[in-house]
Amino acid sequence: MATFHYSGSAFYYNDQAIRLISGAIHYFRTLPEHWEDRLIKLKACGFNTVETYVAWNLHEPKKGQFDFEGMADVVRFIEMAGGLGLHVIVRPAPYICAEWEFGGLPAWLLADSDMRLRCFHKPFLDHVDAYFDVLLPKLKPLLCTNGGPIIAMQIENEYGSYGNDKRYLTHLKDSMISRGIDVLLFTSDGPEDAMLQGGMVPGVLETVNFGSRPVEAFNKLREYQPDAPIMCMEYWNGWFDHWSEEHHTRPADNVAEVLDEMLSLGASVNFYMFHGGTNFGFYNGANCHTLESYEPTITSYDYDALLTESGETTPKYDAVRKVIAKYVDIEPCELPAPAAKKAYGRLQMKEQTSLTANLDRISTPIHSAYPETMEKLGQGYGFIHYSTFITGPRPKDEFFIQDLRDRAQVFLNGQFAATLDRMHPEVKFEFEVPAEGLHVSILVENLGRTNYGPFMRDCKGITEGVRFGRQFLSEWTTYTLPLTDLSGLKFEDLSEQTEPSFFRSTLVVDEPCDTYLSLEGWTKGVVFINGFNLGRYWNIGPQKTLYVPGPLLKQGDNEIVIFELHGTSEPAVTFVDQPDIG
Where is the Beta-galactosidase 1-like first all-beta domain (predicted)? Predict the structure, then answer.
């Protein structure tokens, strides 16, 4: 048994003063086969602690259906860290931000039109408590007070950037304590008056998040919490990328300089991120700072961190290790050998099939008077297909998808007609309807729910309705397309692509290694390898390759399926041994 607490300006592990030098690694952004490799590299860099969020939407994808296996096995990740002699900070708040889909909140919350998020709203709290009833008993045996590695847990994340509901924060605190969580509880907020005032809770340690100017940040924290240790819970040593932006980087010497300043002040620190990993599947989040802005995050979560997306050490790793060595004795620790990389070369797609030809094979039609959102239809992620008929004749008028979330391809009588995009609301689409009428179909992609800020109530699909001119259109047929099971697809020979289509081929592998999939010539879509959703690609960049971890491959035949929304200059891809992230 052990205790972790603070007295005055110092943390103590049992009776020994300790400075936390921690790094964030998200178990859900890295394959389990790679967890140990990343954790060993963390320890070898001089860190004594690992921090991770816990993603509610990963563990309860449908209400009452829980998953703690494979990439969701948070218990195994924490036990592995403890086995390496690392302390663990866990941030299991209902909301985590993390540039993760919906900030970790499960999409099914939005099926309730009256749901209020992150506040003292009983239906929301009931869901949180039901989740805690399952999650916290798994974490309780891992607390340091029970002989485990967990020394601290967070009750909410950057709440002062969102609200000031102290009853809500107190409820979360009490919910954890009543379920046996007796380690240090904390919150983290930006070092600003409003954020600290909104996010602090009596009896809970406050920490601050920033990327620079530590003296200024810690002075602000001390104004509100003068008799406690100072800790940066998120030292932003890199940054994330949105589609169509340039790749963010930060010089290693600048990161090391700010860290040196922090440690010279006696502060503890948690690097966000030590290792970023990947937003596999449809789990990337998005930013929406105003109603008119929307910026989805790319598949890579490399974050320009100390380890690359594939786990390689960087100059930033070496620079940080040198600074840490000035303050603590770093135990000798041999780094694992770099993961083998292989360029498997060019792979020609062999088969193809259109989405519309397979709608009834991979989904079931739903008929309704008006288009429903994904959440109302029990769908979390992916795509959704709507269709209806407009009678004619009608003169040219504008076609509106009212409150589109997020990107729609519109087809008239099966022919592609327009792309309407929440990211480009200025685009207008007009057409006339002939006497025989027009069949209209719309494929909408959920590009990722907002993970931060005031516009998190981010339902997906068509959220208001569809109009031709002033008239709302009725009588819709809808297919939900989460793309979790593609076994029903019926493939044929390659042909000219005229609509969203699936392509399939087989990669023969002699030795499974890490690799990168280059999709040069392709436009936009999703890649599946042996049934695993690798994530999205998009030719607007900055990401040009998708990381393929070696454990996803097997010796022999490997199925590659690509869902391409628009078209490719050539139905072939290339496996290379170096990433291209712009």
Answer: 371-481
Tell me, what CATH number does 25's domain have?
Answer: 3.20.20.80
3 state DSSP class of 83: helix
Helix (H) or strand (E) holding 263: helix 252-264
Same domain, residue pair 202 and 298 = yes
Nearest CA to 76 among 21, 41, 30? 30
Query: With contact defined as beta carbons under 8 Å apart, do 536 and 299 qualify?
Result: yes
- Closest alpha carbon to 277 in 300, 296, 298: 300
First to last CA, the chain: 48
Catalytic choice (99, 101, 156, 234): 234
Range of the domain at 67: 4-325
User: pLDDT per residue over 60-101, tens digit each?
Assistant: 999 999 999 999 999 999 999 999 999 999 999 899 999 999
The amino acid at 259: L
226: preceding bond cis by omega (within 30 degrees): no
* CATH code of the domain in which 559 resides: 2.60.120.260
Burial of 293 (0-12, 13-18, 19+ CB in 10 A): middle
Q: Is 316 in a helix, a strand, or coil?
A: helix
Using DSSP, state whether 36 is helix, strand or coil.
helix
Answer for the pair 164, 116: CB distance below 8 angstroms, yes or no. Answer: no
Let me know whether 360 and 506 are in one domain: no
Q: Which two tokens stand for residue 137?
A: 């008993």
pLDDT of 147 above 80: yes
Write 167-171 long-range contacts (CB < 8 A, 24+). 167/120, 168/118, 168/119, 168/120, 168/125, 169/199, 169/201, 169/204, 170/201, 171/120, 171/125
Which tokens hold the place of 186?
Answer: 């904390």
Q: What is the pTM of this model?
A: 0.97
**Which CA distances in Å does 267 have to 19, 89, 160, 215, 292?**
7, 16, 22, 10, 40
* HSE-CB for 113 with a 13 A CA cutoff: 6
Instruction: Find where tokens 């007796």 sit.
Output: 182
Which is catalytic among the residues 158, 295, 309, 445?
Answer: 158
Collapsing DSSP to helix, strand or coil, 100 comes out as: strand
- Cβ count near 120 (within 10 Å): 16
**Whether residue 464 lies in the annotated active site:** no
Q: What is the pLDDT of residues 98-125, one digit of tens each?
A: 999 999 999 999 999 999 999 999 999 9
C-alpha 418/C-alpha 410 separation (Å) is: 5
Domain end position, chosen among 449, 481, 513 = 481
Task: Name the nearest CA neighbour of 11 among 27, 25, 1, 22.
Answer: 22
* Residue-wise pLDDT tens digits, 519-532: 999 999 999 999 99
Biggest CA pair distance of the chain: 85
The answer to whether the Cα torsion of 58, 81, 139, 188 is positive or negative is negative
Q: Is 291's pLDDT higher than 80?
A: no
Q: Is 234 a catalytic residue?
A: yes
Residues 6+ apart with CB under 8 A from 281: 381, 533, 535
